[in-house]
Specification:
The structure holds 2 protein chains of 2 kinds. By secondary structure, chain A is mainly β. Helix content of chain A is 0%, strand content 58%. In chain A, strands 2, 4, 5, 6, 8, 9 and 10 form a 7-stranded mixed β-sheet that branches. Chain A has a 3-stranded antiparallel β-sheet with strand order 1-3-7, with no helix packed on it. In chain A, strand 8 (86-93) and strand 9 (96-99) form a beta hairpin. Chain B has one helix at 103-107, and strands at 3-7, 10-12, 18-25, 34-39, 45-51, 58-60, 68-73, 78-83, 92-99, 115-118, 122-126. In chain B, strand 7 (68-73) and strand 8 form a beta hairpin. In chain B, strands 2, 4, 5, 6, 9, 10 and 11 form a 7-stranded mixed β-sheet that branches. Chain B is globular, with a radius of gyration of 14 Å. By secondary structure, chain B is mainly β. Classes of the chains: A mainly beta, B mainly beta.
């Protein structure tokens, strides 16, 4: 099974700063099958990015995704107060899904 | 508006059984694969199971295979998860989620293999 490793575990930043989150796969992942989700405390996850770089409906353009093969990145260009949350990457393969362990973006 | 409402969570003893349900509305339920994802307290997300929209194909995570059974009733817009032989490590919030499309579409790359709508979750606690 493909293991996704996210780094860093926690990112401490101030509003307005740029956030760069990494997701590394143990084997190559098709870009079509790499997604990112946001989860706030007490809430369900929300789909942000699919196909490695396409924003889901209603997602602001400060969120962007990039990468290929085994290395993928989620970038938040300028953090808004509502962006402080946990972010998960996800991959699909052989009719099953795996998630990374998450990166927490916290207010510095 | 898409809505997914889980029910059936609660406290159960190790070795016991529980059945979760998810009532769906706001979309054509019979067109989309549906899935369960769980989250242990303070931990990350773990995919549990998926069921296709039309041909009844099901897939499970190794951690639940042989103990959990996913099913759906397209006439009632309802998704279910029968959980047997429950263990302490099954304690989690269980989310029902809608897939972008049917499994065959995702497998052949016709569309993204993602979960675009989620319920608020049902807490399952396995403890004596």
């Amino acid at each position: 099974d493909t293991v996704l490793t996210q780094s860093p575990g926690t990112l401490s930043l101030s509003p307005g700063e740029r956030a760069t989150l990494s997701c590394r796969a143990s084997q190559s992942v098709s870009s079509s099958y790499l997604a990112w989700y946001q989860q706030k405390p007490g809430q369900a996850p929300r789909l942000l990015i699919y196909g490695a770089s396409s924003r889901a409906t209603g997602i602001p353009d400060r969120f962007s995704g990039s990468g290929s093969g085994t290395d993928f990145t989620l970038t938040i260009s300028s953090l808004e107060p509502e962006d402080f949350a946990v972010y998960y990457c996800q991959q699909f393969g052989r009719s099953s899904w795996t998630f990374g362990q998450g990166t927490k973006v916290e207010i510095k | 508006e898409v809505q997914l409402l889980e029910s059936g969570g609660g406290l159960v003893q190790p070795g016991g059984s529980l059945r979760l349900s998810c009532a769906a509305s706001g979309f054509t339920f019979s067109t989309y694969a549906m899935t369960w994802v769980r989250q242990a307290p303070g931990k990350g997300l773990e995919w549990v199971s998926v069921i296709s929209a039309t041909d009844g194909s099901t897939y499970y995570a190794d951690s639940v295979k042989g103990r959990f059974t996913i099913s759906r009733d397209n006439s009632k817009n309802t998704l279910s998860l029968q959980m047997n032989s429950l263990r302490a490590e099954d304690t989690a919030v269980y989310y029902c989620a809608k897939a972008w499309g049917d499994i065959v579409l995702m497998v052949y790359g016709v569309g993204p293999a993602v979960f675009d709508y989620w319920g608020q979750g049902a807490l399952v606690t396995v403890s004596s």
